[in-house]
Design brief:
CATH topology of the largest domain: TIM Barrel
Number of strands: 10
Structural class: alpha/beta
Strand content: 5-15%
Strand order of the largest sheet: 1-2-3-5-6-7-8-10
Helix content: 40-55%
CATH architecture of the largest domain: Alpha-Beta Barrel
Shape: globular
Largest sheet: 8 strands, parallel, barrel
Order of helices and strands: EHEHEEHEHHEHEHEHHHHHHEHHEH
Radius of gyration: 20 Å
Number of domains: 2
Distance between the termini: 20 Å
CATH superfamily of the largest domain: Luciferase-like domain
């Protein structure tokens, strides 16, 4: 049976986890809650949620690997697992972006794939309570470069309570293959029903490279779906069309895989070099009004309808089924406009309807 999760909005500038929805999801049989390092810290928020829940898994979606050292990441996640009672943590990690990496963390963007390989190697040593000893192309521990003091490899002081799976967020081909090779799973940026077969060759490539007998059955795939309940289906589509336009560059390969190469090319032509991340941070439209509307109008209704859930509850109940049968192992249900920084009023019945469709609870 597919696992269900919800997510705490990363766009909110005021940290206020939606405890009513999170606790409801736990009662409805959801498996996990995720939060990201966007405008807030992941582990701090998850620690707060741990104190208000009993058994929900607590996942980072994602911790940026340029924002902290792998040993410090392991220490934070192990501490969280201690506070939560053990066996409740999912380590979701990702590369983030050049603006965050270079702008906030003062790190060169460099080679994200090599950095991720090194980061996960050291992270796993820390999470397992092993001696931290790794020599990599980007990251090494202990430090052995110029001016090194010759520090000997050592373990972290904290005791692991349970195995913590490492799930890697990836959008590009090399990183997707790497997620299968060195991770316990993959978090795609966009994987609507019918899209999984298009990326299976990349996942299999990574599994073969691992050379340890790991198969697709051993890989967790946590996709997400965004939901808006509204009797006006077209109105509900508008925020998601804006989302598509904003993040079109990151999701280009997924558009092409879905048969929308013309759309990808058109949005690329309209957008030019517009900075999507700056738009989200500033809360402004990505483009000047005329081009913004032209780009929104370029996104077909069917592109949204096949990859988001919009409309009345009965429509959502019907259209969730392809997601549940798509071959993914986990589905993160997110509610509302994913670009706004304003508080979102969530329709909690949507989470119940999805749980019912997944067989977690009997229909009301």
């Amino acid at each position: 049976m597919i696992k269900l999760a919800t997510e705490i909005r990363w766009q909110d500038r005021v940290v206020n986890p939606p405890l009513e929805r999170i606790q409801l999801s736990e009662r409805l049989g959801y498996d996990a809650v995720f939060t990201a390092e966007g405008f807030s810290d992941a582990t701090a928020v998850l620690g707060y949620v741990a104190g208000h829940t009993e058994h929900l898994k607590l996942g980072s979606r994602i911790i940026e690997v340029t924002g902290r050292s792998p040993a410090m990441t392991a220490l934070g996640l192990l501490t969280l697992d201690h506070l939560a009672g053990g066996g409740r943590v999912i380590a979701g990690v990702g590369s983030g972006s050049p603006p965050m990496c270079e702008g906030h963390h003062g790190m060169p963007w460099g080679s994200p794939v090599n950095r991720m390989r090194d980061f996960v190697a050291i992270l796993r040593q820390g999470l397992a309570g092993e001696v931290i000893d790794h020599v990599g192309k980007v990251l090494s521990a202990p430090y052995r470069g110029p001016g090194a003091h010759g520090v000997k490899p050592a373990r972290l002081g904290i005791e692991p309570l349970a195995e913590i799976p490492v799930i890697i967020a990836a959008s590009g081909p090399q990183m997707i293959a790497l997620a299968a090779e060195i991770g316990d799973g993959w978090m795609p940026p966009n994987l609507p029903p019918g899209s999984l077969p298009g990326v299976l060759p990349l996942l299999r490539k990574g599994l073969e490279r691992a050379g340890n007998g790991k198969s697709l059955d051993d890989l967790d795939i946590w996709a997400h779906v965004d939901v808006i309940v509204d009797n006006d289906v077209k109105a509900a589509m508008r925020p998601f069309k804006e989302y598509v336009v904003t993040w079109a560059k990151m999701q280009r390969e997924f558009m092409v895989a879905r048969g929308y190469e013309d759309l990808a090319n058109r949005l690329e032509e309209i957008r030019g070099d517009a900075d999507a991340e700056a738009q989200v941070v500033q809360g402004a439209n990505l483009l000047e009004p005329k081009l913004w509307e032209a780009s929104i109008n370029a996104v077909p209704d069917e592109y949204i309808d096949d990859a988001w859930l919009v409309g009345p509850l009965d429509r959502i109940r019907e259209r969730i089924r392809p997601w549940l049968d798509s071959g993914i192992t986990g589905l993160v249900v997110r509610y509302g406009d994913q670009l706004t920084r304003e508080p979102i009023e969530e329709n909690l019945d949507a989470f119940r309807v999805i749980a019912e469709a997944a067989g977690e609870v009997p229909p009301a």
